[in-house]
Amino acid sequence: MVSGGHEAAAASTQPDSDRLAQLKAFDERKSGVKGLVDAGVKEIPSIFIGQGADAAKVAPSHADLKFPTIDLADLAGEPEKRKLIIDQVRSASESWGFFHVVNHGIPVTTLEEMILGVKRFFEQDDETKRAWYTRDVTKKLVYNTNFDFYSKSSANWRDTFLAVAAPDPLSPEDLPAPCSEILIEYAGEVMKLGKVLLGLFSEALGLEPVHLVDIDLAKGLAVLGHYYPPCPQPDLTLGIHKHSDSDFFTMLLQDHIGGLQVLHDDQWVDVPPLHGSLVVNLGDLLQASFLRKKKKGFGAKQKIIYMVRIFMRKLI
């Protein structure tokens, strides 16, 4: 299954008593970062200001590096065309650990409605959203500010919800009305695409097409929706720190704003929004498999800003 799919962030720390009091006070309001913005704050609270390795530094992007895009339109066509796609998946997985996927079978209208559903949820009034605010990860939907709120040296300027969509399917009664219908539809679509990608990853690794599905890597799914309210002091904080994902792989649905960067050959590269696409991000488990196959060392951390994430990994 997909457990939380939370980021394997670089460094963590135990907060001192004063900082812990500030964190608890913020959490008890149950209105998130958006609540601060709605209240008209002009200066961000100190708990969001990064220091040292977590300082808010946006790296310059290297525009000469082209982010890979893989077109799945011919996947069911001639064997030669399928082999070309598998070769592209292998190359992007080994050298980048990321790629855009287009013509993937999910209707653009579904992608657009998913982004709107995330916005509808977070743009409800605080009183309505408070009913969903929790740090109880056993809930079918968990809404809060930063899953690692109490362990990181500085908090990120974002609010998030997480819905566990498999192995047990989502039910409308477990979800907020503004996004319940689209969450269920979107989860079903990405589960189908996830199985297709697992087949491609299997073949790219020299395995039988059904291998990764047969070892239950399609049994778990979690959907996360991230919301980044306008920040009055954007030079002091980040939407998310640089990190690597500890899951098997992630599918990212960006809105039109952008902000996603990935690390490639020790250089930060912008990932421009591509309408109708998804960004596939290999997690540590899958990328390690490709790098072992290539007999190279393991590394690659990423800084990511986006709106909707899908996680798939094996039940442990």
Poorly predicted segments = 1-12, 296-307, 312-316
CATH topology: Jelly Rolls
What are the secondary-structure elements, in order, as H or E?
A: EHHEHEHHEEHHEEEEEEHEE
Q: What is the CATH superfamily?
A: B-lactam Antibiotic, Isopenicillin N Synthase, Chain
Question: What would you call the shape?
Answer: globular
Q: How large, in whole angstroms, is the Cα Rg?
A: 19 Å
Biggest pleated-sheet summary: 8 strands, mixed
CATH class: Mainly Beta
Give the end-to-end Cα distance, rounded to a whole number of Å. Answer: 7 Å
- Please bin the fraction of helical residues: 25-40%
CATH architecture: Sandwich
If helices are DSSP runs of H or I spanning 4 or more residues, what is the number of helices?
A: 8
Q: Average pLDDT, to the nearest integer?
A: 86
Domain Fe2OG dioxygenase: 219-316
Keywords: Iron, Metal-binding, Oxidoreductase
Protein name: Fe2OG dioxygenase domain-containing protein
Family: Belongs to the iron/ascorbate-dependent oxidoreductase family.
Summarize it.
The chain has 316 residues and is an alpha+beta fold.
Q: Can you walk me through this structure?
A:
The chain has eight helices and 13 strands. The protein is an alpha+beta fold and 316 residues long. The strands form three sheets. An eight-stranded mixed β-sheet has the order 2-3-11-8-13-6-5-4. It has a three-stranded antiparallel β-sheet with strand order 1-7-12, with no helix packed on it. It has helices at 17-29, 32-38, 79-95, 108-122, 126-130, 180-204, 211-214, 284-293; strands spanning 7-9, 69-71, 98-102, 141-144, 159-166, 221-227, 242-245, 249-253, 261-264, 267-270, 278-282, 302-303, 308-312. Helix 3 (79-95) packs across helix 6 (180-204) and helix 4 packs across helix 6. It has one domain: Jelly Rolls. The termini are close together. The radius of gyration is 19 Å and the shape is globular. InterPro entries: DIOX_N, IPNS-like_FE2OG_OXY, IPNS-like_sf, Oxoglu/Fe-dep_dioxygenase_dom. GO terms for molecular function: dioxygenase activity; metal ion binding. Belongs to the iron/ascorbate-dependent oxidoreductase family.
